[in-house]
Amino acid sequence: MKKPAGGPDQPELVQLLTPEGERVEHPDYAIDVTPEELRGLYRDMVLTRRFDGEATTLQRQGELGLWASLLGQEAAQIGSGRATRADDYVFPTYREHGVAWCRGVDPTNLLGMFRGVNHGGWDPNENNFHLYTIVIGSQALHATGYAMGVAKDGADSAVIAYFGDGASSQGDVAEAFTFAAVYNAPVVFFCQNNQWAISEPTEKQTRVPLYRRAQGYGFPGVRVDGNDVLACLAVTKAALERARTGQGPMLVEAFTYRMGAHTTSDDPTKYRRDEEREAWEAKDPILRLRRHLEREGLADEEFFAALEAESDALAKRVRDRVRTMPDPEDTAIFENIYADGHALVDEERAQFAAYQAQFADEESN
Fold first, then answer.
1. What is the per-residue pLDDT across 319-361, written as a single tens digit (0 to 9) for each?
2. How many CA atoms lie within 13 A of 329 on its CB side?
3. Which stretches make up the Dehydrogenase E1 component domain (predicted)?
4. How distant, in Å, are the alpha carbons of 96, 138, 301, 306 from that of 309?
5. What distance in Å separates the CA atoms of residue 148 and residue 152, rounded to the nearest whole number?
6. What is the pTM of this model?
7. Beta strand pairing status for 200-201 and 221-225?
8. How far is CA 32 from CA 13, 38, 88, in A?
9. Closest CA to 258 of 56, 82, 4
10. How many angstroms separate the CA atoms of 135 and 89, rounded?
C-alpha cells in the first residue's frame, strides 16, 4: 500500500489514483468500481469539460454576459456528484456545472442566468439541485437549515453544500459550521480548494489547512486529492453515509486547481505564474483517468472516438440553444416579488414601462 499523497509542506491527502494513472489503496476509503463505472466517470468529466469550454467561447463571442469555468475541477465535481443519492439535496455555488450534470440538470439550462434571460433555468425540487448561488458562502447556511429540517422530518437523506476556499473565510460559512455541529445536521460541506479566491492565494485565507477548521467546530474534516475522481467519489460517499446515519456533519476539502480564470472577467496572468499552472496540468484529472483506462485495457479507441463525437454533438446543442433562447418580457423583473402585489413595485413597473416607451417612440419617428 502506498502512503497517501501530500507533497512537500502539505498534509497527507486521500488518493486512490496517482497522476500517472496507477490505482492505489487507502486504509480508510476503499471503493470498488466496475470498468463500466470507470468509463462513465471519464465520460462525465469529458462532456462536462466540453460544455464548460463551449460556454467560455460563447461568452467571448458576446452570447453570455459572464461565465465561471470549472476547468481543472472536473474530478472533484463528478466524483462528489456521483456519490450523492437521488433523495439527497445539493446546494451549489455558481461553478458546479459537473455536479449539475450528475444531478440530471440539462446543461443548457445553466446558461440562461449567464445570458441574462432568467434567474435560473431549472426547478430545484425536480433534481434536488438548488439554483446557483452568486452570494459567496450563503448557500452553506441554506444547506444547514435544510439539513436540520431533514433531520426533524426523520428522513435518512443527506445534504451537501459546495463552496470554495475563498468562501471558507465568510461569516456565513462559520455560522453554518456552528449550527450544523450543534444540531448534528446531516450535511457535508464540500470545499473545492482551487488555490485562488480570485487573486488571493489560499495562504492569505488561512494559517492551517482548510479541512482542519472543522476540528474547532467539533466535527471531522478530511483533505482529498481533488484531481482524483475515485478519491472524491469514495470520500464523499463515506461522508454522506455518515451524515445519513446520524453522525453529523463533515468537511471535505478537495485539493485541486482552477486552471482557468476565476470568471471570464478575470485575468489570472496578473497574479499567478505560468509555472504553477503547468505543474497542475500534469495532474489533469481527465488525463489521469484516461491513463488508468489505457493502462488496464478498460477502454479502446472506439470508446474514445465515440465520446469525441458525443462531445461535438453536445457542443452544437449548447450553441444552438443559447442563440435561440427567448428574451424575457421587459417588465418580467417586476413579477413574482410579492404574492399579493405591492404599491411601490407597481409604481416602479409603471416608471420602467414609460422609460421603455420612449425608445419605441424614437424608433417610430
1. 999 999 999 888 888 988 898 889 999 999 999 999 999 887 6
2. 7
3. 43-316
4. 24, 39, 12, 5
5. 6
6. 0.92
7. unpaired
8. 19, 10, 22
9. 56
10. 19
Which residues in the chain come in under a pLDDT of 50?
1-4, 8
Pairing of strands 159-164, 89-91: parallel
SS3 track for 28-95: CCCCCCCHHHHHHHHHHHHHHHHHHHHHHHHHHCCCCCCCCCCCCCHHHHHHHHCCCCCCCEEECCCC
- Give the whole-angstrom CA distance, residue 307 versus residue 43: 7
Cell reading at 127? 433534481
pLDDT tens by residue, 197-236: 999 999 898 999 999 999 999 999 999 999 999 999 999 9
Other beta carbons within 10 angstroms of residue 6's beta carbon come to 15
Give me the residue label for grid cell 477502454: 299
> Would you say 325 and 121 are in contact if contact means Cβ atoms under 8 Å apart?
no
Q: Is 240 exposed, middle or buried (0-12, 13-18, 19+ CB in 10 A)?
A: buried
Residues that are catalytic:
258, 262, 271
CA 216 to chain centre: 25
